[in-house]
Amino acid sequence: MFEQTFKAIDDVLWKDAGCSSELDYTEQTSWMLFLKYLDDLEQERKLEAELMGEDYRYIIDVDHRWSSWAAPKDANGSFDHNKALTGLDLIDYVDGELFPYLKGFKQRAESPDTIEYKIGEIFGEIRNKIQSGYSLRDAIEKVDELRFRSQVEKHELSHLYETKIKNMGNAGKNGGEYYTPRPLIRAMIDVTKPKIGETIYDGAAGSAGFLCEAYDYLRQGGREKKQLSTNDLKTLQERTFYAKEKKSLAYVIAIMNMILHGIETPNVMHTNTLAENLQDIQPSNQHDIILANPPFGGKERKEVQQNFPIKTGETAFLFLQHFMKTLKPGGRAAIVIKNTFLSNTDNAAIALRKELLENHNLHTVLDCPAKTFLGAGVKTVVLFFTKGEPTQKVWNYQLDPGRSLGKTNPLHDKDLEEFVTLQKGFEDSDKSWSINVEDLDQTNWDLSVKNPNAKKEAELRDPKDIIAEIIALDKESEAILAKIQELV
After folding, report:
1. Fold entry, domain 156-439
2. I want to staple 416 with a disulfide (CB 3.0 to 4.6 A). Which of 52, 134, 187, 319 is the partner?
3. Following DSSP, what letter does each residue of 298-311 receive, concatenated?
4. d(C-alpha 222, C-alpha 199), whole Å
């Protein structure tokens, strides 16, 4: 229903000089989608208030509502081209009046968990990049065709938006920063088994894929597929999902993605998670479930490293410490990390593995194949652990989809079915095995064990044998050639 509209919006932005990449298309579509969503939400709430015989207090002033400046209607409810701003007038209004007004909500909001604060944060972080007022008018009219009224409409829009995020991931070498393959996320959720009433946290939210998938999982009744009560739905909306994101574009996309999935006021903070001192994390800041794919390889400054007991410049190692501290006792985590974490010999990596094994039950390690993350050149593993008990045994699973992964051949849910099934009983197979922690070398806590159950490859032959065979074959060839010469 909406696919053609999305494509038409991209076509408009593609022709505009101010938008040069898939990242720009998604960012610019996001702010327009957000304002259209907000207008639909306000109309819905106004109708509900009228049915209850109450007055509705609008969030957005009348002059700056979508239905006033973006899509004014005439008496018949048709688009009023006479009232609609366009060209330079539209650019001047959006840049000079609309964005400053919306940015001001951050100062006027009562608290950070309100939709008013989110409006202020979003429009304080992004700017209109569309240079032609005629292109902007075309894009706005296309966005106005979209509707957020029913669950079916929201579901389709969320699916299309996810595709845009996936394309962003494919667009640059930092693909994994925006897009974690959804089949992998769903398998991580299947193993951690979140329940209604538990809080779920991602301190490196990116586009909030983990939280959106967890919402879909719980909205459909979790593993038991149980019917949700009104209280359950309220809990899901308000007291379940928590996130932090440092980068402006990812923050905006995370909020829009969660809204499209049905979470109306997302608890996403725009902040550098690693700037928080670990000692300042109180039990009230801890969570039951942590699902995350933190950025790898960054080099964090010395003042950031001071917030952590194990000093390292590796961003992912600092995030892992943050997640271990932020997890409630008995809480469950699934974290994507570079596979070199299992074997690095630097002091920080060794200390971190020791901390993880001694104070958490690292019950499962999922070894992902190359190109699981498009645009990321590193191989990854997923660490599954529970806080508060030492690890006795680690169950490893080597994911092998039986094909080379890539842009046209991504990971599928089917590829992870065996992992999820075998993990329930920590069963051994050709691809899975367990190691006892007591058998590890305690000087380095190296966890990178080769799969002992893999089918043995044919042993390499001794070079002397190969040379002897070549000489024998040469002699046979000489004899055959000699006979042929006799016949000529």
Report:
1. Rossmann fold (3.40.50)
2. 187
3. -B--HHHHTTSSS-
4. 14
Spatial separation of the C-alpha atoms in residues 27 and 371, rounded to whole Å? 26
112-116, 120-124, 208-212: which range is least confident on average? 112-116
Short-list 106, 472, 45, 93, CA closest to 270: 106
Q: Domain 3-149 belongs to what topology?
A: Ferritin (1.20.1260)
Instruction: Give the full edge-to-edge strand order of the sheet including 393-398.
Output: 267-270, 241-245, 200-202, 287-292, 327-338, 380-387, 360-367, 393-398, 432-436
Written as six digits, the tokens of 25 are 């298309």
Q: What DSSP letter does each residue of 188-237 carry, written as one string?
A: HHHHH---TT--EEESS-TT-HHHHHHHHHHHTTTTTTPPPPHHHHHHHH
DSSP H helix total and E strand total for the chain: 19, 9
pLDDT tens readout for residues 296-336: 877 778 889 999 999 998 999 999 999 999 999 999 999 99
pLDDT in tens, 207-261: 899 999 999 999 988 777 788 999 999 999 888 999 999 988 888 888 888 888 8
Report the predicted TM-score, pTM, of the whole model to 2 decimal places.
0.84
